[in-house]
Write a structure and sequence with these properties.
Chain A: It holds the Pfam family FAD_binding_5. Chain A: It comes from Catellatospora methionotrophica. Chain A: This is Carbon-monoxide dehydrogenase medium subunit. Chain A: Keywords: Oxidoreductase. The complex is a heterodimer. By secondary structure, chain A is of the alpha+beta class. Chain A has 12 helices and 12 strands. Among the domains of chain A are: 49 residues, 2-Layer Sandwich (Uridine Diphospho-n-acetylenolpyruvylglucosamine Reductase, domain 2); 101 residues, Enolase-like, domain 1, CATH 3.30.390.50. Chain A has a 5-stranded antiparallel sheet with strand order 4-5-8-6-7. In chain A, strands 9-10-11-12 form a 4-stranded antiparallel sheet. A 3-stranded parallel sheet of chain A has the order 1-3-2, covered by helices on one side. In chain A, helix 2 links the parallel strand 2 and strand 3. The radius of gyration of chain A is 20 Å and the shape is globular. Chain B has 2 domains: 93 residues, Ubiquitin-like (UB roll) (Roll), CATH 3.10.20.30; 67 residues, DNA polymerase, domain 1, CATH 1.10.150.120. Helix content of chain B is 32%, strand content 16%. Chain B has a 5-stranded mixed sheet, sandwiched between helices. In chain B, a hairpin with a 2-residue loop joins strand 3 and strand 4. In chain B, helix 3 packs across helix 6. Chain B starts with 12 loop residues before the first helix and ends with a helix. Chains A and B meet through strand 1, helix 2 and helix 6 of A and strand 4, helix 4 and helix 5 of B.
Chain lengths: 329, 171
């Protein structure tokens, strides 16, 4: 691991100023991605500004939304009773991610900023990685791929955004509050990440010194139901091959309103608006569920190792829609 | 950390890359001056000499390095020692009470819940939290919430049986 300076400020402004002043500085939170990448030599900051003692922890429950401090851990958010009552799919996604040990360390802000698990990105002896070094190529496209994305990607990069909780969060239109050198601003998650096919080396819209301080999560209205289905290679402690976050409101046999996002398939957490539009206001119909899934997959870019994900994602979404539209849950 | 340095020392280039850590490990106050890169796992094993905590994958995948920080189970291989400053750390050496082994340690022996034993300290530390978290209500729950601890010998059935035993006894 490369040597680094270590600071631990106690105020947000101080932390932002410390990183903003040094182009080689970075914030450090739970460390579950960062320390790992530093050990691998993939990420080499000269200065770490440890933000874990900043007053950015805790959940404020309001009538229409949760205001979640960025340093709230995954376990803490999953344990919040209102999350179980009004955002079931957020809780399920949290508890299906990583392990308890990692969830006790990993923060919600950090989860949104996690780097791709692409093995070529994480191996500095692989030179072809457009995400790490622009215009160097993509080893994943030409070699063994499996845990890679099929949406929002092209031959330049097929890196997957592997977060589970980000999938329901983007479905429910969560947003982040950011403090940076230029002050405070709000960014909806739907505009937060940058697709790999829109620039493989840029992962999100944050600038140097920008710090996520809060995640605001709208509560689902009363009468909505939601769930998260994750399909993976082993039963627990594994990333998604495909996943589906569905929230909907039924009116008799009609889907009155619906929100859908998919995981395991996108270079960014994937909001499936085509599917939402095809299903909103329509009767519950398994054939239509599959058609909606196919519509989302129309733009898929696959390599031999990821071709299976097209059908798997359609079936994952269909199954979750069936579960969510069963008469009584 | 700057506040913990004595004012009479003249910082050298090397000092900029060291950090002073004050922590309480298994009830004993400790002070470490370590390279900023030092993980909590390395500090425990190499600085404090507490080698019960094991280095397995060293990348957060296996759970062998599991310890408690402020009562929560975490991975010491992905925790910087600097981040343990001011925290309470419990390792496998601190799991047993004054009056003998922890009930989980006895149950692991009774059920032969290991072969090589390398993952066992992490399994025990994880299981101790699992019980506190109230997640040992069924075998399925035990398996799910112990999934962050791998056992390459495949002693899982016996590990689940040992934990189930203690969970039932605690009812």
């Amino acid at each position: 691991m490369r040597a680094f300076l270590y600071d631990r400020p106690t105020a947000v402004d101080e932390a932002v100023a410390a990183v903003a002043a040094d182009p080689q500085a970075a914030f450090l939170a739970g460390g579950t991605t960062q320390v790992d990448l530093m050990k691998d030599g993939v990420w080499t900051p000269d200065r770490l500004v440890d933000i874990t003692r900043l007053p950015l922890r805790g959940i404020l429950v309001e009538s229409q939304q949760l205001k979640v401090g960025a340093l709230t851990t995954m376990e803490e958010l999953a344990a919040e009773p209102v999350v179980a009552q009004r955002l079931a799919f957020v809780r399920e996604a949290l508890l299906h991610g990583a392990s308890v040990q990692l969830r006790n360390m990993a923060t919600i802000g950090g989860n949104l900023l996690q780097r791709t698990r692409c093995r070529y990105f994480r191996d500095p002896t692989v030179s072809a990685c457009n995400r790490r070094s622009p215009d160097s190529g993509c080893a994943a496209v030409d070699n063994v791929a499996r845990m890679h994305a099929i949406l929002g990607v092209d031959e330049r990069c097929i890196a997957l955004h592997a977060s589970d909780v980000a999938v329901p969060l983007i479905a429910v239109d969560a947003s982040v509050l950011v403090n940076g050198p230029a002050g405070q601003r709000r960014i909806p998650l739907t505009e937060f990440w940058v697709r790999a096919d829109e620039g493989p080396s840029i992962e999100n819209v944050l600038g140097h010194g920008d710090l996520i301080t809060e995640i605001d999560i709208p509560l689902l209205p009363q009468g909505w139901r939601s769930g998260y289905l994750k399909v993976r290679d082993r039963a627990s402690y594994e990333f998604a091959l495909t996943s589906a976050a569905v929230a909907l409101q039924l009116d008799g046999d009609l889907i009155a309103d619906i929100r859908i996002a998919l995981g395991g398939v996108g270079s960014v957490p994937w909001r499936a608006r085509e599917a939402e539009e095809m299903l909103r206001g329509t009767p519950v119909d398994p054939l239509r569920f599959e058609q909606a899934g196919r519509a989302v997959m129309a733009s898929a870019f696959t390599v031999p190792g990821t071709a299976f994900k097209v059908d798997l994602a359609v079936r994952t979404l269909s199954r979750q829609l069936l579960t969510m539209t069963e008469a009584k849950r | 950390m700057k506040t913990t340095r004595t004012t009479t020392r003249v910082p050298s280039a090397q000092d900029l890359y060291t950090v002073d850590v004050f922590t309480v490990v298994n009830g004993s106050p400790m002070q470490w001056r370590v390279d900023t890169r030092t993980t909590l796992l390395e500090a425990l094993r190499d600085t404090a000499g507490l080698t019960g905590t094991k280095r397995g994958c060293d990348q957060g995948a296996c759970g062998a390095c599991t310890v408690h920080v402020d009562g929560k189970r975490v991975l010491s291989c992905l925790t910087l020692a600097a981040q343990a400053d001011g925290r309470q750390v419990t390792t496998i050496e601190g799991l047993a009470g004054d009056d003998g082994p922890h009930p989980l340690q006895e149950a692991f022996l009774r059920h032969d819940a290991f072969q090589c034993g390398f993952c066992t300290p992490g399994q025990l530390m994880s299981a101790a939290c699992l019980l506190r978290e109230g997640r040992a209500g069924s075998d399925a729950a035990i398996r799910e919430y112990m999934s962050g601890n791998l056992c390459r010998c495949g002693a899982y059935d016996n590990i689940v049986a040992a934990i189930r035993d203690v969970a039932k006894g605690a009812d």
